[in-house]
Specification:
By secondary structure, this protein is mainly α. It folds into two domains: 30 residues; 107 residues, Cytochrome Bc1 Complex, Chain D, domain 2, CATH 1.10.760.10. Helices cover 51% and strands 0% of the residues. It contains seven helices and no strands. It starts with 7 loop residues before the first helix and ends with a helix. About 9% of the residues have low confidence.
Length: 150
């Protein structure tokens, strides 16, 4: 068996080929979700009492920082770092994750957002069992500070 030595030139070429494949694959995954529907607000069956619920946490730097940590761990994979619904895992879902930066999203009351975070709707998971009430409100504090249009 004859093997040819790996020269620096071949190593560089192989690196560029692999990098190109990864870039193309990432682009295809990101674009694959463009035609998918989002879960529109009319598809959620939110009880009227949820619209009146107020956020009991104080909007503070500590709550926002805690909410950011929770969001990064649980939400970024679908909603993306900037909340635009373009997270890596979101491209594989049947419905595109919500864009958390739009006026339409923020036309909902904090209580409605809390209800949706608590109960979920496929493919959005419910966080009632995994995040305490306080932590769910901290996520909303972070989302408000980071994504709500000014």
């Amino acid at each position: 068996m004859i093997t040819s030595p790996i020269t620096p030139r071949r190593a560089v070429c192989a690196t560029f080929v692999v990098a190109g494949m990864l870039t193309t694959g990432s682009y295809v995954l990101a674009r694959s979700n463009l035609g998918k529907p989002t879960i529109s607000e009319s598809h959620w069956k939110v009880p009227a009492r949820a619209t009146k619920k107020k956020n009991p946490t104080k909007m503070s730097a500590a709550n926002i920082a805690a909410g950011k940590t929770i969001f990064t761990t649980n939400c970024v994979m679908c909603h993306g770092v900037h909340g635009k619904g373009n997270g890596t895992a979101g491209s594989f879902l049947s419905h595109k994750p919500a864009n958390l930066t739009t006026p339409a999203f923020w036309s909902q009351s904090p209580g409605v957002i809390f209800w949706k975070l608590t109960h979920g709707k496929t493919p959005m998971p419910a966080f009632r069992a995994t995040l305490s009430r306080h932590k769910r409100w901290q996520v909303i504090d972070y989302m408000t500070s980071a994504f709500k249009p000014r």
